[in-house]
What does this fold into?
Amino acid sequence: MTNNGEGRAGNGAPLRAIDWTMTAITAPSAHEVSRTAVAVSPVAVGMAGAVAGVSAMPADWRDFFALTKPKVMRLVVFTGLCGLLAAPGSIHPVIGFTAILCIALAAGGAGALNMWWEADIDAKMKRTMRRPLPTGAMRREDARDFGLLLCGVAVMMMGLAVHWLAAGVLAFSIFFYAVIYTMWLKPRTPQNIVIGGAAGAFPPLIGWIAVTGEITAMPLLLFAIIFIWTPPHFWALALWVKIDYAEAGIPMMPVAAGEVSTRRQILAYSLLLLPLSAAPWFIGGTGAIYGVAALALSAVFLALAVPVGLRRAGEGDAMKPEKRLFAWSILYLFALFGALVIDNWVLA
Amino acid sequence: MTPQEEEEFKRRRKARNLVFVAVLLGFVVLFYAITIVRMSD
It folds into this structure.
């Protein structure tokens, strides 16, 4: 059974009821008897882990590592590091390393909390069903405690070793991702990705604050770039895995508003990204190296978004333009922030 | 628990303990370095 929001638990109940009605006609298997025992007996609930398939083995350390979403963490660490390296001023390498470690730990902790909360949804989607909680490699409570521990260590260490403003923004970003996005908005609105994108936009802002100790226009622009980049990046993916989201009951844009609307919005955000990505150059925050690179990278982004925005996918479509846009969007962010750091070094 | 399962149980526990020790040692070194840097500020 889930400890998630009532809505999701409620949605699954009628289906389970039908399932039980069907199985009552035939002789129940030993496994079904065990499940019934767990459902009706408070004593058996304590054993639910074993019955529901949670391994009696202690979880492997790799399972804990998988909870931190290492692939997402890579991008988070990279953008955080770029914010730190592009900021004016200097930071001692040890303190700089600590700041990035704290950003990584917080991202990992928030990822673990996300997996704890969404274990039942993950189990329904092909992309996520092999995660440690859906496979029963560990108990949900362990994932929750591990996430809270990582987040707590990250915020305290950031405050004590680096800067309390950076620690405050870090704590808010964890709250934003784990509570506002994962628990509140994701299951409720198709705008979830737009708002959730803000959570992923925090790392360069935090990296910058770690150096300067203040929030200025430049780090806010870096925040805005990732914020605007997220919807076309994620919806390009959501367009070809939308059946998964529909089955899991997540109101992702292609499911909730339809494919046509999603494609138009991908195009609109990509159009907006072009001037926004070059804005740090326009306000004099960077040199021409970044400015020209940003315009070129965003122009390619837009060129790839146009076919995605204007076409309609038929039955059995390979979704190549969408996959191409998704792949480019990841490369785009690495290249854009790489250009920012190179520009800063050359100017210095 | 079969002998194989017990073997796997011990292997996992040992691996977790080793990773835990490595992480703890990492933090000890890091906190030492942070303290030295902060004191010289």
About this structure: Residues 3-39 of chain B form the longest helix (37 residues).
